[in-house]
């Protein structure tokens, strides 16, 4: 069964997550489907793409498929990880990508929201970034997505607490560009997409690339990069990481020891 559906309506491309059995988890298979869809829409010169979940979904996406994370002693979010490939595909797409959010957003899917150009949500949506619940060492690129969008103090609170951020607060702190009622969500998003689609496609593509380059213009020394990787390795080689993954798979609360 397909995990996504694709539709082009009035010049806007819609990629709909439609794998309710797995709560739209960003598995390797689903990610590959989305990346192929983005390439196809780019070839069709679709300048605005909307990510959404199927009608009636209570979870927009559960995030990275935890069953696909390595158990230990390997970087769970390396450069070629499925989530990382998806985020890069979104960032380099030569047009606007809008997240239309109905339902809860968890883990790596929250990073996907941060990587989209615009986010519109309704009162049902919430957002939680949850590596601290799994003992997972999040990567520097992903952390930067949150810092750029929300600022340092809000990003720290989200990562440290792993608590869901409500729709209203998500709008106040900048996760959402717009918060509308569920009955208005589709029409509002469609109207925004149509207005963007009427602008210069070339101008938007070039400006988006400038945003991408400038937002990542934080030079660090090779020594600092190696230290970051070494710190992350301490986590994914640890008992806490192994315990977090096992506890999730066994559907129990983890017992972290800090070792």
Structural class: alpha/beta
Helix count from the secondary structure assignment:
11
What fraction of the residues are assigned to beta strands by DSSP?
15-25%
Mean pLDDT: 94
Q: Separation of termini?
A: 42 Å
Which regions contain 5 or more consecutive residues with pLDDT less than 50? Answer: none
The outline comes out as globular
Provide the succession of SSEs.
EEHEEHEEHEEHHHEHEHHHH
How many beta strands in the DSSP annotation? Answer: 10
* Oligomeric nature of the chains: single chain
Strands in their spatial order, largest beta sheet: 1-2-3-5-7-10
The major beta sheet can be summarized as:
6 strands, mixed
What is the share of helical residues? Answer: 40-55%
CA-based gyration radius: 18 Å
């Amino acid at each position: 069964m397909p995990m996504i559906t694709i539709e082009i309506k009035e010049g806007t491309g819609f990629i709909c997550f439609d794998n309710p059995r797995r709560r739209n988890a960003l598995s390797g298979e689903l990610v590959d489907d989305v990346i192929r869809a983005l390439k196809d829409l780019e070839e069709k010169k679709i300048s605005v793409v909307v990510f959404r979940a199927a009608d009636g979904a209570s979870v927009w996406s559960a995030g990275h498929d935890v069953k696909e994370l390595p158990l230990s002693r390997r970087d769970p979010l390396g450069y070629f990880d499925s989530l990382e490939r998806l985020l890069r595909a979104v960032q380099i797409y030569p047009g606007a990508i809008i997240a239309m959010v109905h339902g809860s957003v968890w883990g790596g899917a929250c990073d996907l929201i941060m990587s989209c150009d615009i986010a519109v949500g309704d009162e049902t949506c919430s957002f939680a970034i949850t590596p601290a619940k799994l003992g997972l060492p999040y990567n520097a690129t992903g952390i930067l997505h949150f810092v750029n969008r929300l600022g340092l103090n809000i990003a720290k609170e989200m990562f440290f607490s792993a608590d869901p951020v409500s729709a209203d607060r998500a709008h106040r702190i900048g996760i959402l560009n717009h918060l509308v009622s569920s009955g208005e969500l589709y029409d509002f998003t469609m109207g925004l997409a149509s207005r963007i689609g009427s602008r210069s496609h070339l101008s938007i593509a070039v400006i988006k690339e400038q945003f991408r380059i400038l937002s990542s213009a934080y030079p660090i020394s090779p020594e600092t990069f190696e230290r970051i990787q070494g710190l992350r390795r301490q986590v994914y080689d640890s008992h806490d990481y192994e315990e977090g993954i096992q506890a999730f798979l066994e559907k129990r609360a983890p017992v972290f020891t800090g070792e």
